[in-house]
Amino acid sequence: MQRLVIVSNRVPAVRDRKQPAGGLAVALRAAVQDHPCLWFGWSGQQIGGDGADRALGVDTVGHVTYATIGLTHKEYNGFYQGYSNAVLWPLCHYRAGFMNYNRHDQQVYASVNTLFATRLAPMLKPDDMVWVHDYHLFPLGKALRDLKVKARIGFFLHIPFPPWSLMRALPEAPALMRDLRAYDVIGVQTEDDARNMNEAFAVLGIPARARVFPIGIDPDSFFACACEGQNLPQVQRLRQDLRGLPLIIGVDRMDYSKGLLERLRGYDTFLKRYPEYRGKVTYLQITPVSRGSVPEYQSLRAELDQIVGHINGTYGAFDWTPVRYLTHPLPRELLAAFFQLSSAALVTPLRDGMNLVAKEYVAAQVPENPGTLILSRFAGAAADMEDALLVNPHDSDEIAAALHKALSLSGSERRVRWERLRAEVWRVTAAGWARSFIAAMSEVRTT
């Protein structure tokens, strides 16, 4: 059987290698189970000096070998904090005004991709299938080809890809697009992303390369996790605190792309327009802090603190807190159980590649009494989840109306909507996504 070589910016932490905890690791679990596998990337550690003598860490769990390298402080700042997350991330999420570009960071980004290629190439075999993941590693395929790697190489972009009219704001955009020619297969989340990327190729005279491979979750596993979690003491305490009243839930990493301010404004409008819900509903927002040293994220946290304080101060009572707001992560089993306990979920990204939280919420529901998903039209998942209550996150009145509708739907109406959403979530799974991309790579002829 051919070996699958996964390359990502981060490799799962040691604690997550037997039982992946989330994100890319969970999505790739099926692919890892089906193939002998090498997983290569950054260890998550910063090292001193210039990195000339950096060691390669190797750990094998089952039939998966994890190979990791550290990054120097300069590389971390330029490659990860700088170019990847202060330039490419905002640009791909249609927020060019948040770009903090400088040529030095771009050069460090290119050098780290070259470093990855240099350390990975000696480990590769001619019949390997190399699967590169996400915006941190756009140029890696070209760097591997420059080292005469002949193996099949595919690339999957997990975040959105913007129109060329926006993408061209990046000074290196033409070169970056040309670097993508090194990949045999290029995958994106949605038809919009594929169209945007292929139009960019067309402008540069490059044949269309992008194809749609929508990502999913493992819904059976998530539902089982949600059911088992009902016995957790935290879930039992929350159920008692709610006293039978409905719970609205939101779960997102703290990021300006997630529409957190917009949904809280929508909830504020909801309590203003529908005063009958005051004291009769609770909103739980779980927002782990990320990239806390970046000024834009520090500003976002301050704004979130302010609006939560405003809502609780305006509408709260001695025995009722309108918003329960957490900025630390919770275990997957606890989140799944909270999803199952809630009457509605607010998932309102301003732009998202797919958004697996929406799919997890649907997967967690009990068929006899499912909750209602309120979903941004700008989430990649929205195209195939039209039975959610779709909203424009910029319109607080629309969010308020959707919350009122979600809490007013009859049991039969909720079940009809959920059954249609369930069919979609079980149709497009993480396993199917991985297998379809690997099948596409398998069809490529090598020279």
UniProtKB/TrEMBL annotation:
Pfam families: Glyco_transf_20 (PF00982). GO terms for biological process: trehalose biosynthetic process. The keyword Transferase applies. Keywords: Glycosyltransferase, Transferase. Its EC number is 2.4.1.15. It comes from the Bacteria. CDD domains: GT20_TPS. Coiled coil: none annotated. GO terms for molecular function: alpha,alpha-trehalose-phosphate synthase (UDP-forming) activity. PANTHER family: BCDNA.GH08860, TREHALOSE-6-PHOSPHATE SYNTHASE. Belongs to the glycosyltransferase 20 family. This is Trehalose 6-phosphate synthase.
